[in-house]
Design brief:
- By secondary structure, the protein is of the alpha/beta class.
- The chain has a single domain, classed as 3-Layer(aba) Sandwich (D-Maltodextrin-Binding Protein, domain 2).
- It has twelve helices and 13 strands.
- Strands 1, 2, 6, 7, 8, 9, 10, 11, 12 and 13 form a ten-stranded mixed beta sheet that branches.
- Helix 1 packs across helix 9 (about 225-230) and helix 4 (about 105-120) crosses helix 11 (about 275-290).
- The longest helix is centred in the last third of the chain and has 16 residues, at about 275-290.
- The radius of gyration is 19 Å and the shape is globular.
């Protein structure tokens, strides 16, 4: 049965530049957003610094215990007969639309569908709705989606807006540059350079805190940075390491440089008043990881592992210990 999706965008000329490079594996994204917005200068304010200090004392591992009980939030979702999950459609190997089938696919998509079927019992009652990086929290608080499975970092800033499941993947911030670049490490790649990041991402916060880039260009979706780099409009891109590896696999003209920043984890996001839904999702994630035949590790081996550096392929490096 063909699964329903919502809110897709037509492909643009710039998106084709990126999607055309996706000739590996299961295909790449077909709907990258055109890069928009004027470049914005890097700056660090006292408010940002205060937020960073606050983050040091925040408990990022706190969540509700797993449960199979349907509480008010889950019952309300079942009453409307549809579970709407916010996902990405622009991140190769994580959440991207296969141009041959039109289906969304990737590591996060596997998890989203697993959660959806576990809660609703029927894939036809699960809607995968593409949302932008910057619009993830607003999509939840504005009741456009019921939960988000879209490489969303568990951070103190995000915890003020949404509730998170237990973490399901370890990530770091990495930098991509054109393959022709002679820079040797992350600091060289961003020092005095024009660097791109998705608005609302951890990469944006890291670049603002480091204050070494000449200019920070913000885009709606992280794949738009790849388009800008292809066009020579930015020198480098900072994003999650797994998304960086996916972009390098998608486009052989870019590479990941040595070094990383800010190791963190990602989780499934929900509204803060949906405690029982968070508990249900935690149960699904635990069961998904325990399923060695068709669960977390099999999805990792299919979508992520082939494009990791040889010394970083162990799945144990990416499942968060708690």
């Amino acid at each position: 049965m063909r699964r329903r999706t919502a809110g897709t965008r037509p492909a643009t000329v710039l998106a084709l530049l990126a999607a055309g490079a996706a000739v590996l594996g299961g295909g790449g994204p077909s709907g990258a957003a055109a890069a928009t917005g004027a470049p914005q200068a890097v700056r660090s304010t006292g408010q940002e610094q205060a937020g960073q200090e606050e983050a040091e004392s925040c408990d990022l591992t706190s969540t509700v215990p797993p449960s199979t009980v349907d509480g008010p939030a889950v019952k309300a979702i079942k009453a409307k007969d549809t579970l709407i999950i916010g996902v990405d459609q622009n991140s190769y190997r994580w959440g991207a639309r296969n141009p041959n089938t039109g289906e969304l696919e990737g590591f996060d998509i596997d998890l989203a569908r697993t959660i959806g079927v576990a809660i609703m019992g029927n894939p036809a009652k699960v809607v995968l709705k593409p949302v932008s990086t910057a619009g993830r929290a607003d999509a939840l608080t504005g009741n456009q989606v019921d939960l988000i499975v879209r490489t969303m970092t568990i951070s103190c800033a995000n915890l003020k807006k949404v509730a998170f499941s237990r973490s399901y993947f370890n990530i770091k911030q990495r930098v991509l540059v054109p393959r022709s670049s002679t820079v040797k490490n992350l600091d060289e790649a961003i020092g005095g350079k024009t660097v791109c990041a998705a608005d609302g991402s951890v990469a944006k916060d890291v670049l603002n805190a480091k204050k070494t880039a000449k200019q920070l260009v913000l885009v709606t979706n992280q794949l738009d940075c790849l388009v800008r780099m292809q066009l020579g409009k930015v020198d480098a891109t900072m994003t999650d390491d797994e998304l960086a590896v996916g972009q390098a696999a998608q486009d052989q003209t870019v590479k990941v440089v040595d070094g990383f920043e800010q190791p963190e984890t990602i989780g499934v996001a929900m509204r803060q008043n949906s405690t029982d839904l968070t508990a249900r999702v935690n149960q699904v994630i635990s069961d998904y990881y325990a399923d060695k035949d068709k669960g977390w590790q099999k999805s990792f081996e299919r979508w992520v592992q082939p494009y990791l550096p040889e010394n970083s392929k162990d799945p144990g490096l990416y499942w968060p210990a708690r």
